[in-house]
Glutamate racemase
Amino acid sequence: MIGIFDSGVGGMTVARKIEQVCPQFPLLYFGDVAHTPYGSKSSDTIIGYSRRNTDFLLNQGAQVIVVACNSAAATSVDVLRAEYSVPIIDVITATSSKAAAGTLNGRIGIIGTRATIQSGIYEKQIKRVTPDYRIYGQACPLLVPLIEEGWLNKRETKMILRRYLHPLRQHQIDTLILGCTHYPLLTHLIQKKIGKKVQLIDSSIETAQHLKSFLDNSPEITSNIKEKFNGYQPHCLENNRFFVSDSTPPLQKLADGIFGRKINLIKTNA
Ligand code: DGL
C-alpha cells in the first residue's frame, strides 16, 4: 500500500491526485489533525511527529511512504530516509524541478509555512541546478488554520492572502510554488491575487507524477504492493483508508470536498 501523511487535510490534495494518477494502488492516509499546524513548530517536534506517522503507516501495511507535507519534508525527510528502509517520496523535489523548468524570467516565488520557508529547502534545490535564479520565499503561517477551518472564500482570507502576496508581486515573479499541500484549496484566490500571468506550481500534482514515475520504474515494489494487499482489486477506491488523529465537522466537509465523495475518516490515537 502507498502510505501518505500530512499534518491535516492538506495531504489529501496529494492523495487525491495519487488516486487519479496511480488508480491501481491502494492508499493509506494519515492526517495528524490533533497536532496541526506543523509549520509553526520546531524541527525536533516535527521530526518526532514524522517518525510516529511513518511507524503508524508501516504498521498498517504501507510499503512506500509519501511525505505529503512540505513542513515535514523540509525538516524530516533526510532523517526518515536514514532510519527506514522503505522508499520515501517527498513533495519538494519534483515541485522545485518543475518550477525551475517552467520559469521564463528566472524569478520564482514560494509560499509555505514558516518551517518550510525558514528551511530554505526550495531555494537550495533550485539553486543547485540554476544558481543564478532569484528565489523569493514568503511564510504564510495564517493560511493553514484558515483552510482547516474551511474559510476558503471568506473576506478575511482574501485580505490576508493579498498581504502575503504583495511582496512577491513587487519582485515580478513569473512562477509561484504552492509550497504547502493545503494551498491548492486556495488556488482560485491565489491566482487572482498574484495575477493571471504568474504560473502556479502545485506540489500535489508534481508529487503524484513523481510517485507514478518512481512506481513505473520499480516493478519489484509494485508487485509487492499487489501481492501483500489482502483482497486487492485494482482501481477500487474502497481499498483506500483515511486515518486522522482528530476529527471535526469542518474537516469532514473539506475531506469530502477534496475527494468529491463521502470520505470515512477513521479516528485513531496513533
Ligand atoms: N500541509 C502542510 C505543508 O505542506 C503542513 C501545514 C502545517 O501543518 O503547517 O507544509
About this structure: The longest strand covers residues 107-112.
